[in-house]
Write a structure and sequence with these properties.
The protein is mainly beta. It has three helices and 57 strands. A hairpin with a 5-residue loop joins strand 44 (497-506) and strand 45 (512-523). The radius of gyration is 60 Å and the shape is elongated. Residues 1-22 form the signal peptide.
């Protein structure tokens, strides 16, 4: 009995000072609980800790998703009982609770977030066949060792200037971060996290050599050498040399300001970062150099502090400045306190607009055509930050296009189906006062849409070869027809075609018979044109054009070798020198000419059919012949050197001698003649050959003759 009392008394004295590990913590349905982690095992009988008045199974972890095998050794007969593990958000049960030969139970789990898990435990339901389930809770105590180190070679700080140092840790989630600045001995500090990196912010407040001591704590504890839980991490120490303050960059919430009357007099509201050296209700001069006597760029008046550690200020600007020209200095009197930088630009103003068509030069004529691509240049002031837009135009400008404060160039496409007549140019929402005027294309197209019909069939004017057209028939009329659907398509626009037709009619001696000019012929593109809906058809010419409606001398009244010269051309007033012209030359060709001619054969050698010898030479005779002349097939209005005809021959008609030997008679003859081919000769001597019948002779009336004649041209 004495021994029992002594043992109880010893327990009462020893337990308050005993280590956290309990020697016999197992009770209830399980006599032992064992956790297998990797190659180590932790049991409730050997590795239990007393925390918050409860016995908990302690185990270390390195991974947030540690996998563990749990072995349960029951204090009851495993043969008649079943054990299940309750679901929990802190872990994932990887398999069922398995009875191993009625010796123990085994289950595998995978933890999800060991650092963030609170009140971690296993809840088992033990049930036999006769009674209700009994719940058994096994408390778990995960712990880990976390290291935090500071590697920083630079030990120079400046009073009032915050510096950010990077900390190295093996478990950033287990490092507890204070929400506010922690006061130190001459150096204040706080912790933050950015992109998974733990950062230490330091703010020196006193000059000299100062040692920074950062005391950190963890979210999950570790075990000290006595096996007790501890949340304290090793203290970080670093010695710094703190120097006097230097110029600090004061950032404004805007980088660009427009210099105008409002910004010069009333000022612009801006937000700047707060700084311990920035005094409220004070005006700071802004100059372009740190030394005294700099150019006054503006003034900054600090009004009051606002949220997010900002200060609301008035900024007044008095001069232009570009960021590339260097820093600006905020001065209290002549003493520089801060540096900053921002741009002060002139207000955007458009002075001139010019365009360049494809293949052309810059022009101030702001007329554009549907479907074309143009370059548009805007010149003025403060244009680098202007945002121009254009009604209904497609901006295809590339990054390499010119953009400066003085000029900006855009590459624009005018839609084919644009319906506007004026395209406004806007800077953001404000009109610049400049407009582009949309004008339908007025380009001359070749004459493949014009057809001419002078008797055979319609021919495309553009396909007619140059040179005279020899036509063998009567030209009843010359008709022009047009194909509007040929003029335009989706790929190429030409617009209305303004045409004139000049007609000149001459005879075989090139004497003018008639002359007309048909003007104001307007052929509009057809319905297939993408611009068909926008064509004003009141001036368009429809139907065909007949030349006989304009000519005084109709084409069907023209004689052989009359010439019809037709010139179809674009209106010079509309196109100028860019217009096209096509000349069509139609000649009324004949192959044979039938006429009556009086000639004077002289010295004919006449032979009667039944007479011997070669016959007698006659005097000057007269012949009236109806004859056929033959035109040369390859020459214009040129005869072949022979003619054939029939008529009457008065033999020796001009021989007035009274001699009985002079034979005068009238004969019906068939005659062929050969003429010289030289047209310039006024006097020529053709050769006649033929035969006939003397009308007055009763006997031997048939005769033949051969001889020259006389031809005189006037």
């Amino acid at each position: 009995m004495f021994r029992v009392l002594s043992f109880l008394l010893l327990l009462a004295v020893v337990l308050p000072a005993a280590p956290v590990f309990s020697q016999n913590p197992v009770s209830g349905a399980f006599r032992e609980v064992v956790l297998h982690l990797d190659t180590a095992s932790y049991s409730l009988s050997k590795n239990a800790v007393l925390f918050n008045g409860e016995t908990q199974l302690a185990f270390p972890y390195q991974s947030e998703t540690q996998v563990a095998e749990v072995n349960l050794y029951p204090s009851f007969s495993a043969r008649n009982h079943t054990v299940t593990l309750a679901r929990s958000a802190d872990f994932e049960q990887m398999d069922s609770v398995v009875n191993i030969n009625d010796q123990y139970y085994r289950v595998k789990v995978k933890f999800r977030n060991l650092t963030g898990s609170q009140f971690l435990n296993f809840t088992f339901a033990v049930k036999d066949s006769a009674s209700a389930p009994r719940l058994e809770v096994v408390k778990l105590f995960p712990y880990t060792r976390t290291s935090v180190k500071l590697f920083q070679e630079d030990n120079e700080l400046f009073v009032g200037e915050e510096k950010i140092l990077e900390l190295t840790t093996d478990n950033i989630r287990n490092v507890k971060r204070p929400l506010d600045w922690v006061k130190g001995e001459g150096i204040d500090y706080r912790l933050s996290e950015q992109n998974g990196i733990l950062r230490l912010h330091v703010m020196p407040t006193q000059l000299g050599t100062r040692t920074l001591k950062v005391r950190l704590q963890s979210n999950k504890p570790s075990l000290d050498k006595n096996g007790k839980p501890t949340y304290d991490l090793p203290t970080l120490e670093k010695t710094f040399m703190v120097k006097g303050s230097r110029l600090r960059f004061l950032a404004l919430d805007k980088k660009e300001f427009i210099y105008d009357e409002t910004s010069r007099t009333k000022g612009i509201e801006v937000l700047v970062e707060n700084n311990w050296n920035l005094t409220l209700q004070k005006t700071y001069r802004i100059e372009d150099q740190e030394a005294p006597g700099g150019v006054l760029i503006g003034e900054l008046f600090t009004r009051n502090s606002v949220a997010n550690n900002k200060v609301l200020c008035w900024l007044r600007v008095f001069n232009y400045h570009r960021i590339s020209e260097g820093y600006l200095y905020l001065k209290d009197g002549d003493q520089a306190r801060f540096i900053t930088n921002f741009a002060i630009l002139p207000k955007s103003a458009v002075k001139a607009v010019s365009i360049m068509h494809e293949g052309g030069d810059w022009t101030s004529n702001l007329t554009v055509n549907p479907g074309e691509v143009i370059n548009l240049k805007i010149e003025g002031e403060g244009l680098s930050k202007a945002r121009f837009r254009f009604d209904d135009l497609t901006d295809i400008t590339t990054d390499s296009t010119l953009r400066t404060d003085e000029a900006v160039v855009y590459k624009l496409r005018v839609p084919v189906n644009i319906s506007r007549r004026k395209i406004g140019i806007y800077n953001r929402a404000a009109s610049t006062g400049h407009f582009l005027t949309v004008k339908e294309y007025q380009r001359p197209r070749n004459f493949d849409f014009v057809y001419i019909n002078y008797g055979a069939k319609p021919q495309k004017v553009s396909g007619i070869v140059d040179g005279p057209i020899l036509y063998d028939h009567v030209v009843k009329d010359i008709v022009f027809t047009f194909q509007p659907n040929v003029i335009e398509n989706e790929k190429k626009l030409y617009g209305k075609q303004y045409l004139d037709i000049d007609v000149r009619v001459t005879n075989s001696r090139n004497e003018l018979i008639d002359q007309r000019t048909i003007e104001n012929i307007v052929i509009c593109p057809g319905d297939n044109s993408p611009r068909a809906a926008f064509v004003n058809d009141r001036e368009c010419t429809y139907g065909e054009i007949s030349l006989n409606n304009f000519l005084g001398r109709k084409t069907y009244d023209l004689s052989e070798w009359n010439r019809i010269e037709i010139t179809i051309r674009h209106d010079k007033d509309k196109y100028g020198s860019e217009g096209q012209s096509k000349k069509i030359d139609i000649l009324l060709r004949r192959r044979v000419k039938f006429d009556t001619e009086v000639s004077f054969p002289a010295g004919l050698l006449v032979k009667h059919q039944n007479s011997d010898g070669y016959g007698n030479l006659g005097g000057i005779s007269m012949a009236m012949i109806a004859q056929f002349s033959f035109y040369h097939p390859e020459k214009i209005n040129r005869f072949r050197p022979y003619k054939i005809g029939a008529g009457f021959l008065a033999l020796n008609a001009f021989n007035f001698s009274n001699s009985a030997n002079v034979q005068r008679d009238l004969g019906a003859v068939i005659i062929g003649s050969l003429y010289p081919t030289t047209r310039e000769t006024k006097l020529s001597f053709p050769l006649y050959l033929g035969g006939g019948y003397f009308i007055s002779k009763k006997t031997d009336p048939w005769f033949y003759f051969l001889g020259p004649g006389i031809q005189v041209r006037f």
